[in-house]
Amino acid sequence: MARADRPALSTGPDGGDGRTVAGVGVGVSSGNGRDVDGRTDDGRNVDGRNVDRPPGAAAARRAVEAVWRIESARIIGALTRWTGDFALAEDVAQEAVAEALVSWARDGEPASPVGWLLATARRRAIDHYRRRSALDERYAALGGRLPEGGASSGAEPAPANPDDLPWDPDQIEDDVLALMFVACHPVLSPEARTALTLRVVAGLSSEEIARAFLVPVPTVQARITRAKKTVAAAGVPFAVPPPQERRERLGGVLSVLYVIFTEGSTATSGDRLLRTDLAYEAIRLARTLAALLPGEAEVFGLLALFELTAARFPARTGPDGEPVLLEDQDRRRWDHSAVRRGLAALDRATAVGHGLGPYGLQAAIAACHAGAPSVAATDWQRIVLLYEALGRIAPSPVVELNRAVAVAMATGPQEALRIVDELAVSGRLSGSHLLPGVRGELLTRLGRTTEARSELELAARLCRNTRERSVLLRKAAALG
């Protein structure tokens, strides 16, 4: 499991809720260090010259970004099925986007933007195979699928019927689902899965992914390049796994979405507590997955967890971005529409499953908070029971630390401190600011202020998020 919510009585910005699970703007990138229009990151053309965009460039960029953000997964999925080559499909799709920025600025947006991008990408794929082998069988097969005149017209003709889709509607859902499973394949490292999912499924640029996770752009680009090479070398099929494998592989997909949302909900480092765009991107992908797999309980459990957690975003920070503790939040500012969506998803998880799984149990904990009028009125005894159930099916030191927080709220700090001290002895959270942060809170409640201040100061030294660190230091200073 990815890291769980900041387990804080009030140590964290959203303290005591048992979860801090879980950015990025719209954009497209070529993945080679240049933006899609061929410029380097500092705005220069690839040959180093500063180039002014034509008058229609801004409108074209907005149109391309909108189409790409909404349809990128379908476009890459259809191209992967069509070419049989995942890496090539992503490359030619990006080349088509780059061409669109120029062509649409000059000629205006085509009647069928997605069809235009697909036709252009197909021609680029044919060019690739032509270069590799002039008239081999694969090129002949691809050429035979291109609409008459498409090879020379520069765009695929608009469908005769405006309602026609540029892909097979009977296969598109499988294409998107297969793309998710490829991007999250177990042959890839966790970091590569996250980067590749955000790139090819969510349609984010390397620059946006790097900004979201505070890593250099070349690092993200290298991860994506290595991931595509690994997928190719391993011969990963572009297909939805067979039923006997799907449940096991689905866990990897859900884990990637969980990591993305977690980082958006409470950033690991940096000077922002929330990276909401990143969290909302995870929610969008979870909704897509729920629509594609309506019979999978844990998909709905994960979606419920995301919605219920994100419902608190409007109240979690003040005007200057400073954290607002759970007990201090104005619950009228919570997004109650998101609460309703989360509860509905949780009901669906309960209805289609045979008992809640790890994500469903965490969503049930979030639902306890969503339905309570205040911290004092929260059903902490139920939350303790839910954490005990979670610890049995998905044991982890963070789950146990969260259980200690719930125990402290339900029955008092003494028993909770015993749980935390056992964790400290085990060394399973060594180096994390979470454990000394919670321990400092418990010691404060027990009146052991000198020890409490020492623990809170240790937590602040270990914490890499500037906003969370300021909360911990403020608490330590208040103890004298």
| Count of DSSP H/I helices | 21
Radius of gyration: 25 Å
Q: How many separate domains?
A: 2
Summarize the amount of helix as a percent range.
55-70%
Distance between the termini: 38 Å
Q: Please mark out the parts with pLDDT under 50 across 5 or more consecutive residues, or reply none.
A: 1-13, 15-53, 147-167
Strand content: under 5%
CATH architectural name of the largest domain: Alpha Horseshoe
Classified in CATH, the superfamily of the largest domain is Tetratricopeptide repeat domain
CATH topology-level fold name of the largest domain: Serine Threonine Protein Phosphatase 5, Tetratricopeptide repeat
Number of strands: 0
Biggest sheet: strands, sense, closure? none
Q: Which structural class do the helices and strands define? A: mainly alpha
Question: Please, what is the average pLDDT?
Answer: 81
By CATH reckoning, the class of the largest domain would read: Mainly Alpha
Keywords:
480 residues; Serine Threonine Protein Phosphatase 5, Tetratricopeptide repeat; 2 domains; 63% helix
How would you characterize this protein structure?
The chain is elongated, with a radius of gyration of 25 Å. Residues 1-13, 15-53 and 147-167 have low confidence and may be disordered. 63% of the residues lie in helices and 0% in strands. It has 21 helices and no strands. The protein has helices spanning 57-83, 86-107, 113-132, 137-145, 150-153, 172-183, 190-201, 206-213, 217-233, 243-265, 276-292, 297-310, 313-316, 336-352, 358-370, 380-393, 397-411, 413-426, 434-445, 449-462, 466-478. It is mainly alpha-helical and 480 residues long. The chain folds into two domains: 57-168; 235-478, Tetratricopeptide repeat domain (Serine Threonine Protein Phosphatase 5, Tetratricopeptide repeat). The longest helix has 27 residues, at 57-83. Helix 6 packs antiparallel against helix 7 (190-201).
